[in-house]
Amino acid sequence: MTVERIYVFKRFERLWHWGQASLIIFMLITGFEVHGSYTLFGFGKAVDLHTIAAWSLIGLWVFAIFWHFTTGEWKQYIPTTDKVVAMIKFYSVGIFTNAPHPFKATTLKKHNPLQRLAYLGVLLFIGPLLWLTGWLYLFFSDWAAWGVDQYVSLEWVAFFHTAGAFMMLLFLIAHVYLTTAGHTPTSHIKAMITGWEEVD
Amino acid sequence: MLKVIGGFIAALVFVGFMAYNFMSSMMFWEIPSPFGVEETVARIQQNIQNAGNGWALAGLRNPAKAVENDGGNALPVMMVEACSTKYSGPILRDDTVRFLSILMPCKISIYKKNDGKTYIAGMNARLMGKMFGPLVGEVMGHVADDQAKFIIFDASQPAPPMIKGTPGAAGGAAAASGGGC
Amino acid sequence: MLSKLKIALSTLVAGATVAALTAFATPVPAPAQTATNVAPAAQAAMPAAAPDPAAMVKKASNSTADHSKFKELQKEFKSGPEVTKACLTCHTEAAKQIQKTKHWTFEFINPETQQKLGKKNVINNFCTAVESNQKFCNACHVGYGWENDKFDFTADENVDCVVCHESTGTYRKVPGLSGHPTYKDMEFPPHSGKIVKAPDLAKVAQSVGKTSRANCGSCHFYGGGGDAVKHGDLDSTLKDPPKYLDIHMEKKGLNFSCGTCHMTSAHQVPGSRYAPTAAGKKDAVAPHMRGKADDSNPTSCQSCHGTKPHSAKMAKLNEHTDKIACQTCHIPEFARGQATKMTWDWSTAGQLTPEGKPIVKKDSAGRNAYDSKKGDFTWEDHVIPEYIWFNGKVNYTLRETKLDPSKVVKINSFEGSPTDGKSLIWPVKVFRGQQPYDSVSNTLLVPHTFGADDTAYWSNFNWDKSLEAGMKAANVPYSGKYGFVKTEMSWPITHMVAPKADALTCAQCHSKEGRLKNVKGIYMPGRGDNNQLLDKAGWALALLTLIGVLIHGAGRIYAHRKG
Q1: Which residue of A174, B17, B64, C210 is most buried, as measured by CB atoms within 10 A?
Q2: Chain CA centroid to CA C10, Å
Q3: Residue-range definition of the domain harbouring residue C304
Q4: How many domains would you assign to chain A?
Q5: What is the pLDDT of residues C38-50, one digit of tens each?
Q6: ipTM of the complex
Q7: C7, A180: Cβ pair inside 8 Å?
């Protein structure tokens, strides 16, 4: 079995990924403190840090969106039903029987169909949910000036923001685990660090 | 082999973490008081004076006052200081443990928290004592037994007056009359 | 908005790593940090500690008139009214101005509720009522001689000028003299062995000037029958308050008098507890300037500080000002100078020694805990306030108001709600007690407490006689049957503003057992207002996912080894 190496993740992409990952983990930590789940930094500090991280992430996203559209990489997230069943079969059966991975990453198609669906969900649903509710949260005292105070209440904004956070947490757990489900347990992680992925 | 060492290190980290977490609650105790700050102070003072074993009041400190004098605010804190020469004597006579005079006199702190309630805190004399050999261990054990009695209150008795200042041991100087340290 | 964008831009550059680094570089506050915080404060206080001797000697007044040089005042005065006559020779309109104020009429009609209030009308749960006890209570009337209903409210010489304007500190209106000072040395309180000296009225008259903290305090610090009894945020420690106690009134600091905020015009003092201003004017232009066309109440924090008082660095705090009164954070505790009375139970009054003598019992701090004349008390210092929604509207239980004796009677109830757009969360002192009520007509009673007659409670300890006399004087029918009902009275906390470093911190409210745990109708992050179902579902799913991936991983390892 020969090992082939392909260059899947470009420098900016890797920077974006790890920046986003650390910010999201940090925001989960500070966010659930603000939520009242535990005390770590202290409420006031947690709020400040959460806000700073939020603005940093927005900045990162501005760059990422720009990058995705100028490079055409956004096409990597176009959903496909092709091989979805095969992927599910692989994760539930094949992976235990040493069956071959049904998807072969290439530079043009670096995400398997399940990844595409999951990441698209994060980008189009969980992300916007958190952004929207987060902004409303942040600009709570401007609601009256914006004329939205009669349609939204902080209680529900907090509810959906928290719901989004839980979804992000679930994604994070599953995502971190599935990084070990590559060609070798560490090949995906190495790829995200070096850019080069080993494929069969 | 790697697993054994790994397990050992993990256990060590775990124990360290637990110790770090529980250290403060092992070294010190804190309980709520059924009375206000002044009445708690007064009742503890009365208990100390009735405790026997050479116990005497050594002073009453108000560290919150110092903060106020500097223009800041602090919720009320009062420290009842008590001493028994019966217990301090043996420790003060032994060169190897004389440095423990840093812990004298015995202090019980009474303070208000942001919930509006009064709390009593003290040092776990028994545990601390055990760290410094049999002599100190034994003495501090007795101290701990007596201290436990200082905070038993009889609410049916009327509130005694609080004793301000440092009876018999003004300025911390050795004063024979009060038996203060 | 702008400041937020600025923060956004600056942090954008810094990015994730910086955010993470700053977070971990500053450790979670440890006890040791308090020590370092104290040190700079101590240094800052040092230069101020040496008082300027020139300022001490120089008279505080910049007035163009030295009253000690006035011929009209250089004579022997035999009584208060004589002094007043002398004042009025120059200050021709002063008495007429006073006579329009509630300091004089003891009457106030709330323009919103139309309730007839004022000391003449309300019943409180301290000394309860003025009626029938005028000789005693009216020591705090700004006049001379109001001992019964025959008092002449139109006589100019009945106005007491000097109580508010003298600066010798020797002039004292002794309870029992209907508003007069004592004109010869007398023992007060009776049998106390303390002698109140008769003031030298000429000196008093010559000393007049602007009203000082001590002048206002001579009554307002002693409300409820003694120093610090009533308000909790007004007591004699404010005569010369240290910095920690009152950041505005510290002598070495801003040295505000009461009138700096209670900006008086034509003797009308603004800022009233009968019709308080809960939120200040939203569009008030700060600072509130004398002579400027703005009829809003100058006696509010907002009239000087505006509604966005915090620096851009603390912009989040400015977003709290439409929901939280300034006082809530900036007066973290009241009665920080000395203890205030918290409860008063009249029902236990009247215990006497076997010889029939009244008793006084002390608490651990040496304060009166029981007095045969008044019943049981409790006192507390550094009191954590209770917090309520308050929109400025207060309803009183008056003499004629029917009450439900099975419930705690709210002598005054503060209106407010989280949704009316006018209410802020306010700190209040709630004073609780038991006091006599008519158990047939279910109304509060007016006891006759003070007097040389045999019906006064403080002389004879007989409720039947005392209540009958009191109600007769008040001209209200009394069934003759009385009981004691539990009552509650609220006092907004607004004085004794602490230095800004001592304001409440975020977590003191944004936590599960925080200060605002009983404030309803608002979602507060960190207080445990979370949707419990979402929390449970969220954590359960996270745990299940974690277990799922662990099992999946274990399965892979197992399969890998086997195969």
Answers
A1: B64
A2: 44
A3: 108-125+276-551
A4: 1
A5: 333 333 333 333 3
A6: 0.89
A7: no
pLDDT-wise least confident of A13-22, B131-140, C165-174, C251-260: B131-140
Q: Tell me the pLDDT tens digit for each residue of C146-166.
A: 999 899 999 999 999 999 999
Encoding tokens for residue C493?
A: 């906390």
Which stretches within B116-163 are classed as H helix? 125-130, 133-150
C414-439 pLDDT per residue, tens: 999 998 888 999 999 999 999 999 99
Confidence of residue C293 (pLDDT cuts 50, 70, 90): low
Of B67, B112, B161, the CB nearest to C366: B161
- Cα gap C347→A96, rounded to integer Å: 82
The answer on pLDDT for C324 being more than 70 is yes
| Smallest Cα distance from C563 to chain B, Å | 23
Of B38, B39, B72, the CB nearest to C502: B72
The answer to whether C282 and A141 have CB atoms below 8 angstroms apart is no
CATH of the domain at A73: 1.20.950.20
Q: Which residues pair with C483 in a beta bridge?
A: C437
User: B29-163 belongs to which CATH class?
Assistant: alpha beta
Q: Determine how many CB atoms are found less than 10 A away from the CB of residue B22.
A: 10
Q: Which tens digit of pLDDT belongs to each residue from C461-502?
A: 999 999 999 999 999 999 999 999 999 999 999 999 999 999
Cα separation of the two ends of chain C:
62
Chain B adjacent subunits, 3+ CB pairs under 8 A:
C
Highest mean pLDDT among C55-64, C283-292, C470-479: C470-479
- The reply to whether A179 touches chain C by the CB within 8 Å rule is no
What does the buried/exposed string (b/e) look like for A181-198 if buried means 16 or more CB atoms within 10 Å of the residue's CB? bbbeeebbebbbeebebb
Residue in chain C nearest B40 by alpha carbon: C364
Q: How much is the pTM? A: 0.85
Tell me the chain B residues in contact with residue C498 when contact means C-beta distances shorter than 8 Å.
73
Domain definitions of chain B by residue range = 29-163
Section C84-105 average pLDDT? 96
**Are A55 and C5 a contacting pair, CB within 8 Å?**
no
- Residues C411 and B125: their CA atoms lie apart, in Å, by 51
Q: B83 near B56, Cβ under 8 Å?
A: yes
Q: Which chains touch A (3 or more CB pairs under 8 A)?
A: C
List the domain range (segments joined by +) for residue A112.
4-199
- C235 is a domain residue: no
The full length of chain A comes to 200
Q: How confident is the model at residue A96 (pLDDT cuts 50, 70, 90)?
A: confident
The two tokens of residue A78 are: 């176009």
- Chain C residues closer than 8 Å to B76 by CB: 381-382
Q: Strand, coil or helix: what is C155? A: coil
Which residues is A199 bridged to in the sheet?
Answer: A4
Characterize C60-78 residue by residue with b for buried, 16 or more Cβ atoms within 10 angstroms of its Cβ, and e for exposed: eeeeeeebeebeebeeebe
pLDDT for residue C562 is more than 80? no
Residues in chain A within 8 Å Cβ distance of C14: 56
C285 within 8 A of C294, measured Cβ to Cβ:
yes
Q: Which of B155, B176, B172, B177 is nearest to B58 (CA)?
A: B172
Interface test with chain B among C233, C364, C386, by most B beta carbons within 10 Å: C364
Q: How far is C316 from chain B (nearest CA, A)?
A: 23
For residues C517 and C528, give the distance between their C-alpha atoms in angstroms, rounded to a whole number.
9
Chain B positions in Cβ-Cβ contact with residue C31 (cut-off 8 Å): none
pLDDT tens by residue, B67-125:
999 999 999 999 999 999 899 999 999 899 899 898 889 999 999 999 999 999 999 99
Q: How many CB pairs under 8 A join A and C?
A: 143
Please give the structure tokens belonging to residue C53: 């001797």
| Phi and psi, residue C349, nearest 5° | -65, 160
Overall domain count for chain C: 1
